[in-house]
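Practice problem: predict the structure.
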Amino acid sequence: MKMISPVKKSAVVLLIGSILVASLAGCAQKSSTQKTPKSGKTSDPVKIEIPSEGKGSGTIKKEPVKTTPKTQDKDLTEKLTKEKEILGGQVYVQDKTVVVAMNIKSGIAKADADNLAARYMRELKQKYQGKVINVQAVQNKQNIVNLLYDPNQK
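Answer:
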């Protein structure tokens, strides 16, 4: 029986060790590129279709969410911007929601802003029956009035 020298033993052990380390490093690098994002959210909505017969696996199709574009109520926006308390604002409708955004001049009392917002709320309830209405007033970069009316909530 022939003896293997200690130098050859060390070289073989070192060779096997380096092959193992290289293999593990390659596997670790490969799996890290296949991980999902930490947030778990995707930028596009996903629609899942499940077969009605209950057979097979469902399919996932990416489809954009369909919303109607917001449209401005030009008459009410013009009326709003002519108010003496208002710097600027807009009334717009999107789907089943009406939004009034108004920028109140500095120095106008909160009570006056409340009254103005309430007046527009009453007018919008009559004009847009059955829609959710949100009236917001901002003064000096702070939201001072936020009225929400939902006809479905009693």
